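User: Sequence recovery, please. Input:
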């Protein structure tokens, strides 16, 4: 999971959507708690500015499209 911090406006959408509470804010800075993130990808399509992406083996993945829903 990557965050383009130049695009991110800390709108809080990803934080509210995350089922694992892996997204946190610290002093107006967004953080992904890697030990909590399960790479479900739920936050990615809802980011209004496209600041979130998932890369696996240096290849961008759109998990929700590939699994046709949330992965187990």
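Assistant: Recovered sequence (72 residues):
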């Amino acid at each position: 999971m990557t965050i383009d911090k130049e695009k991110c406006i800390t709108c809080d959408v990803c934080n509210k959507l995350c089922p694992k509470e892996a997204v946190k804010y610290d002093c107006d800075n967004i953080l992904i708690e890697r030990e909590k993130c399960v790479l479900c990808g739920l936050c990615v399509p809802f980011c209004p500015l496209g600041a979130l992406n998932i890369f696996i083996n240096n290849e961008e993945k759109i998990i929700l499209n590939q699994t046709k829903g949330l992965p187990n």
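The mean pLDDT is 84.
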